[in-house]
Amino acid sequence: MTAVPNAPTVQPVFSRAEIESMTSFRFTDPNPEMGRTYAESAFRDLPEFVQDIVEDVIDLSAWKWNVLVELGQVLEFTGTFRYTIPRSLPCVQRLARRGEGRSGFCPECDGSLVMIDTDGSYTGELGTPVICTCVNWAVHLHRPEVAA
User: Fold this and answer.
1) For residues 75 and 129, which has the higher predicted lDDT (pLDDT)?
2) Which of 38, 47, 108, 114 has its CA 20 to 30 A from that of 94?
3) Are the C-beta atoms of residues 48 and 57 closer than 8 Å to each other?
4) What is the DSSP string of 94-122?
5) Using one digit for the tens of pLDDT, what is the confidence trace for 87-140?
6) Is there a contact between 110 and 93 (Cβ–Cβ < 8 Å)?
């Protein structure tokens, strides 16, 4: 199903606070696979949607991100506020266009850790990007050795 922009809203099953936690994140949030925060994680260890925010929203290259991580200065650059996951992110656009997902990845998020609320049941709005509900983080982060 393809995301529908400006679609009518429906009644979500989650509260406003729960929806905020599903549609945004902070760099102080824990990176689910790494055991440290996103701000403390090397670029290659970030989920795809966080990588897209770093590159497309904050406008940092992977190299610059890694330097900030090494210096412990990521939060000085990004701040600690919530970043909403925009529909314009490359991983969200790829999900909206895709036919079948990549083999070995969650069918909802295709490895990006972001899925699209196609029926509005999560957020009340069709097509809103939300953090995926799947639990097999190792598959998402391309670490099959951890999943075994």
Assistant:
1) 75
2) 38
3) no
4) HHHH-SSPPTTS-TTTTTSSEEEESSSTT
5) 888 888 877 776 555 666 777 887 788 888 888 888 888 888 888 877 444 434
6) no
